[in-house]
Amino acid sequence: MATTTKSVKKTETKPASKTTKNPKKKIRIVPPTIAVIPDKTKRLVSGIKPTGQLTLGNYIGALRQFVKLQDELSDHEHFIFIADLHAITTPQDRLELRKNIRSVAALYIACGLDPDKVNLFIQSEVAEHAALGYIMESTAYVGEMERMTQYKDKKGKQTDGIRTSLLTYPALMAADILLYDANVVPIGDDQKQHLELTRNLATRFNNLYGETFVVPEGFFPETGARIKSLTDPTKKMDKSGDNEKSYILLLDDLGLIRRKIKSAVTDSNGIIKYEVRNKPGISNLLQIYSSLTDVSVKDLEKKYAESDYATFKDDLAEIVVDAIRPIQQKYFEIINDTKLDEILNQGAERAKVIASRKMFKVYKKLGLGRIR
């Protein structure tokens, strides 16, 4: 009987892996991937809380400034965000909060921010804000938090108990800025203390752990930094005020805006002159006029030297309406458009790249996590 021979394949014996001989070998963890967008050498960072509709004061003091700066500081990369984490220092209705977040984002675009020049995103969608916020809490001292003027003011107004975040939110505010190595931070007069704390925390961390954060500089608008209440011009224009005549909302009916301007508090003197101490009401209206037209207060004083308050208010009412009308038109075009979501997604993706890179460095400096 014939026999058949089966061919036997030769198999090579591979040498045992060397890793078994060195169980203590370190694993190298690579930092987060860098986006294809090239970095600019300087950055600008700012944000607004979505705790209600935005006012004319927000527009003049912040939004309008952002629009100018995106062109004037074209060598900077701009990070503008909706500060929703800051909103929860006080109780919020979740549906109303989400509505306000989207509304603020739409108003940013409607006021002239260009998504091709600015990274627009929602703060809570970039988790590194909260992570660095806690690290800033661990860098700050309780005394520094308690000395913050806005904490004292808000503490005096609250009756239902004070949340810890109301005390510590300046640490999160510092994190918002330092996370992106911001060189420039547009601020109003009431935020100087927050910027100073941010600078102190950056310097303290750098001294303790080595060079990590850029120490930011403030940018102070020449006019319109702090628009006052129309009914009490010694106070800031605030949408949380009890008197609806005290503020102008960017989404107010145009006829209502006219009436609010015409009923604004002035004085019995009748002279249109900028004197904050003696004539706070007309000084506030001059500030609004100057900010919206880029005409100096001195030139406005000359223009209306022979006019009365009624004439001045009539003119100002039309100037305010003319400024707000196109904003409202653009707002209602974009508020329910999916394009708004695309803009926010794109901004968040870019922010995450920069933020994750910074947190990788911070964790390494502090010794957090595994060996890297």
CATH class identity of the largest domain: Alpha Beta
| Run of helices and strands | EHEHHEHHHHEHEHHHHH
Largest sheet properties:
3 strands, parallel
Name of the CATH architecture of the largest domain: 3-Layer(aba) Sandwich
Q: What's the Cα radius of gyration?
A: 27 Å
User: How much helix, percentage-wise, in residues?
Assistant: 40-55%
Helices, by number, come to 13
In whole angstroms, how far apart are the ends?
69 Å
Mean pLDDT: 88
Structure summary, number of beta strands: 5
Kindly report the name of the CATH homologous superfamily of the largest domain: HUPs
Strand content: 5-15%
Main structural class: mainly alpha
Low confidence ranges: 1-37
Per the CATH scheme, the topology name of the largest domain is Rossmann fold
Instruction: Tell me which oligomeric state these chains represent.
Output: single chain
Q: Notable features of this structure?
A:
372 residues; mainly alpha; Rossmann fold; Tyrosyl-Transfer RNA Synthetase; 2 domains; three-stranded parallel sheet
Describe it:
The protein has 2 domains: 42-225 and 337-362, Rossmann fold (3-Layer(aba) Sandwich); 244-334, Tyrosyl-Transfer RNA Synthetase, CATH 1.10.240. The chain is 48% helix and 7% strand. The protein contains 13 helices and 5 strands. The strands form 2 sheets. A 3-stranded parallel sheet has the order 1-2-3. Helix 1 (56-72) links the parallel strand 1 (42-48) and strand 2 (76-82). The longest helix has 29 residues, at 338-366.
Question: Layout of SSEs?
Answer:
Elements: E1 42-48, H1 56-72, E2 76-82, H2 84-87, H3 94-110, E3 118-122, H4 128-137, H5 142-146, H6 149-157, H7 164-178, E4 184-186, H8 192-209, E5 217-219, H9 254-262, H10 280-293, H11 297-303, H12 309-334, H13 338-366
Parallel strand pairs: 1-2, 2-3, 4-5
Helix pairs in contact: 3-12, 4-7, 4-13, 7-8, 9-12, 10-12
